[in-house]
Specification:
Length: about 230
């Protein structure tokens, strides 16, 4: 087993010898957090240059730091080990970061790519329902703040039926009443809404009221979690 796996890795390395020094990593951070983008290649760093979308940001060489951009504007720093720090990230910091590391003799040691994505907290999803001919049409919607914002939406009925999609709205049709839950998430946050939906027969006012109460409590808890 183990032997075969080692063999497989070795063959892959033989097939793609460049894989070792040109990996693309994804790094997600929430707005206003600070991020450390570090160099994966082992060993000491003599000369490292960080670029964002092919534009040079800064360089550390022989322990001296040189900025190619405005230091306050980029809110960036470099440590002796080559790690790039970005403080109080804003969405515009998202991009392709590349670091190139050189040895003392000028030989290139490594080049690494990081797709850095700064995400805001997801908006509160809205769960709506329509009752047509004893069939419930449940819809969960999230309002995008920007066009390229994406979420994972998950719609569940009574913990059994579950659909999931990378989108901004999701619909479910069913002939059964029940508790519906919609969860919206991205890489840095998550919000939820839950509702008891009954289609056939009279509406149960008590259930609706208690669900609404539960939702309000949940929203308050989420707000406290996010802002405290
Ligand atoms: C961002 O974080 C700093 C502290 O790290 C805090 O003082 C500031 O209020 C935060 N800003 C927002 C918009 O959350
Ligand atoms: C690099 O140095 C910084 C500050 O000294 C430290 O926080 C970070 O963990 C280091 N990263 C690595 C990969 O060694
Ligand atoms: C960043 O890299 C990804 C994949 O490597 C590519 O799809 C994307 O277009 C790049 N974005 C920019 C702004 O260069
Ligand atoms: C409801 O069902 C009836 C008969 O089954 C049909 O005539 C009617 O068009 C349906 N209404 C809707 C809104 O689908
Ligand atoms: C969701 O879709 C968008 C484009 O439609 C894509 O850029 C993004 O990577 C997808 N996200 C996930 C987690 O699949």
């Amino acid at each position: 087993m183990n032997f075969r796996r080692i063999f497989l890795v070795k063959s892959l390395l033989l097939l793609f010898p460049s894989v070792k020094c040109s990996v693309t990593n994804w790094f997600y951070v929430a707005v206003n957090e600070s991020a450390h983008l570090s160099i994966a290649a082992a060993g000491s760093v003599y000369d490292a240059t960080w670029m964002k979308d092919r534009k040079r940001l800064l360089q550390i060489k022989d322990r001296k730091v040189k900025y190619y951009v405005n230091k306050e504007q980029c809110r960036c720093k470099i440590f002796l080990n080559g790690t790039l720090q970005i403080e109080q990230a804003v969405k515009e910091d998202s991009g392709n970061y590349t670091v190139t590391v050189y040895e003392q003799d000028g030989k290139r040691k490594a080049e690494e790519h990081i797709v850095f994505i700064v995400q805001g907290p997801v908006p509160q999803p809205v769960l709506s329902d329509k009752c047509i001919n004893k069939t419930v049409f449940v819809k969960c919607e999230v309002k995008q703040k920007t066009k390229d914002e994406t979420f994972i939406i998950e719609l569940t009925q009574d913990k059994s039926k579950k659909i999931q999609k990378n989108a901004t709205s999701l619909e479910l049709h069913t002939r059964h009443s029940g508790t519906f839950r919609c969860v919206v998430k991205n890489q840095v946050s998550e919000k939820m809404v839950e509702k008891v939906i009954k289609c056939s027969g009279q509406l149960d006012l008590y259930l609706i009221l208690s669900t609404a109460g539960g939702a309000v409590v949940f929203v308050i808890v989420m707000i406290l979690l996010i802002y405290c």
